[in-house]
Amino acid sequence: MPQHKLVILGLLAVLMAGCGSKDTIPDPDPSETVPGGDIGDMDDYGNDGLSSGEEIIYEPDASEMGNVVYFDYDSSELRTEDTDIVASHARQLSMNSSLSVRLEGHGDERGSREYNIGLGERRAQTVRRLLLIQGASASQVSTVSFGEERPAVEGSNEAAYSQNRRVEITYTN
Amino acid sequence: MMRLNVRLRLFTILLVSILMSDFAVAELDIVITDGIKRRPIAIVPFGWEGQGAEVPLDVAKIISDDLSRSGRFAPIPVEDMLQKPTDGTGVDFDDWAILGVEAVVVGKVEQTGENAYNVQFQLFDVFGRDQLVGYRMPASRGTMRRVSHRTADMIYEELTGIKGVFDTKVAYVTARSQADGKLFSLTVADQDGENENVIMESRNPIMSPAWSPDSRRLAYVSFENNRSSIFVQTLRTGNRIQVSSKAGINGAPAFSPDGRQLVLTLGGVDGNPDIHVMDISSRQTRRLTTHRAIDTEGSWSPDGKYIYFTSDRSGGPQIYRVAASGGTPERITFEGSYNARPRMSPDGTRLAMVHLFQGNYRIAVMDMIDEKRRDLLVLSAGQQDESPSFAPNSDTLIYATRATKNGVLETVTADGLIRQTLAPGSGDIREPVWSPFQRF
């Protein structure tokens, strides 16, 4: 269910800086943002009821954003398009300390099984770090790597592999 | 002029080595089952001296199947035999020489009690006209299959000089798709696939089985409760103990040669997989690596001095070793971009691994004796071959490969000449591990 929420710009700036994407996030340029400060031309909104630096923005629920992020071959870098998914879960966790998540890291079937456990863990840790940077607490986040043992899609082709290199965010509480 | 000469020679050497390596690969690709000339041998049906018409077990057939499966022998059909003696006094060497067989095995099963038998065999060299080996062994209905495999082992060793591994077991993991998800099982079977015994079943993944040196226990990883734990299970009783269930990764167990310690991979909360050694009785662990890269898949050298492991500290996975007492890890592999899951042969002469070769994951071995011959020899021919495990005689390896969508098991001799696919069972089979020699 879509929700509109008031969000402090400073948090937005931290989120974007934390996601550390290089060049695909449109204006405002995250490299120029100052946590807690204005971003670009936000002054233009000039709503009377809001103090400078606050804005009403569309903030989908974590449940609407999905709970799976995907990774490139041999990579544990979060893709730019998935930063919002992680951010939405971080927000949910930071606002509700009784929630906790298990991050399940997975890989494709190629290569050695225990080494793939390591790769899956590395991906889960990427997501864990981003959750913690964005306000989740360490006690809310656990990781487990299933390596190649639990593919989302069966098959020995890139279409299957790309669906299997993933981290699933599962609420355990 | 001098320089030109050197260059020319270098070029020639390069060309020859390229040609040779291509040739070697092409040859391996052709080899399916008949890598070498199989030696003709006769296994005469065993005689039966006991109550009832039926012998409890067709001992000769088991021996014949074992020798045939080794890829080194071609037992002749029973119907071609001109005589079927059951002991040495009836063997006419000329009758066997005509058929071109090199060796003849004769024997019989005698009943000595309600569930007591003697299995007797003799092996003859047809051209030397002499007995090579002969034994009489007690057996029950329960042990007769093992006595038969043991007989095949003695015949094999006598004729090849290589210890037989027919009386050994293999453990492996199977995943079966069911309506409500996957069912994982850990199975122990005789090396010929008989006597399958499921020792553990779970809806969650089971991984990385490892034999204890006395072949009485298996260590493995189980994801029951959605987290990884390492268990050690005693085969005879089924009793199992959870030896590691720390936060993060608990993986890749392997027993030390004395059976008292496990090398394992622990990841911790921060998820940095490192090699640890655990004293099994006290559960005390000692950390051997501290690098922030993935360090995993540890296994011991047979002398217990080193632990070989996979690390991607150089960027991609390569094989390293560290002294079991601790120290600075030393890189072992430099050929190719992906080398993982090291396993040393029990005689310490070869190191097997998963090696990315021309876009395919293959099983390869490295010579550990001759420093000048550290080139990898690629043994397998699949696209996703993994989990190499040496037979206790160091002569053959078993590994998992992929046939269409399911995993199947293959064996290959360490020289790459004889490769065999084991008859696929049901389900997706993976992670075979060959047992040590069994105590009788």
Write structural notes for this entry.
The complex is a heterodimer of chains A (173) and B (440). Chain A is of the alpha+beta class and 173 residues long. Chain A folds into two domains: 1-59, no CATH class; 62-173, OmpA-like domain (60s Ribosomal Protein L30, Chain: A), CATH 3.30.1330. Helix content of chain A is 32%, strand content 18%. Chain A is built from five helices and six strands, in the order E-H-E-H-E-H-E-H-E-H-E. Chain A has helices at 9-19, 62-65, 83-95, 113-133, 158-164, and strands at residues 4-8, 54-58, 68-70, 101-106, 141-147, 166-171. Chain A has a four-stranded mixed beta sheet with strand order 3-6-4-5. In chain A, helix 3 packs across helix 4. The model of chain A is unreliable at 1-50 (pLDDT under 50). Chain B folds into two domains: 39-160, TolB, N-terminal domain (Rossmann fold); 169-434, Neuraminidase, CATH 2.120.10. By secondary structure, chain B is mainly beta. The interface between A and B is medium-sized, with 29 and 39 residues.
Blueprint (SSEs and pairs):
The complex is a heterodimer of chains A (173) and B (440).
Chain A (H helix, E strand, L loop, with lengths): L3 E5 H11 L34 E5 L3 H4 L2 E3 L12 H13 L5 E6 L6 H21 L7 E7 L10 H7 L1 E6 L2
Parallel strand pairs in A: 4-5
Antiparallel strand pairs in A: 1-2, 3-6, 4-6
Helix pairs in contact in A: 3-4
Chain B lengths: L1 H29 L8 E5 L3 E3 L9 H11 L3 E3 L17 H6 L4 E11 L2 E10 L4 E10 L4 H17 L8 E10 L2 E10 L6 E6 L3 E6 L5 E6 L6 E6 L5 E5 L5 E6 L5 E6 L7 E6 L5 E3 L7 E6 L5 E6 L6 E6 L6 E2 L7 E6 L5 E8 L2 E8 L8 E3 L7 E5 L5 E8 L2 E8 L5 E3 L6 E7 L6
Parallel strand pairs in B: 1-3, 1-4, 2-4
Antiparallel strand pairs in B: 4-5, 5-6, 7-8, 7-30, 8-9, 10-11, 11-12, 12-13, 14-15, 15-16, 16-17, 18-19, 19-20, 20-21, 22-23, 23-24, 24-25, 26-27, 27-28, 28-29
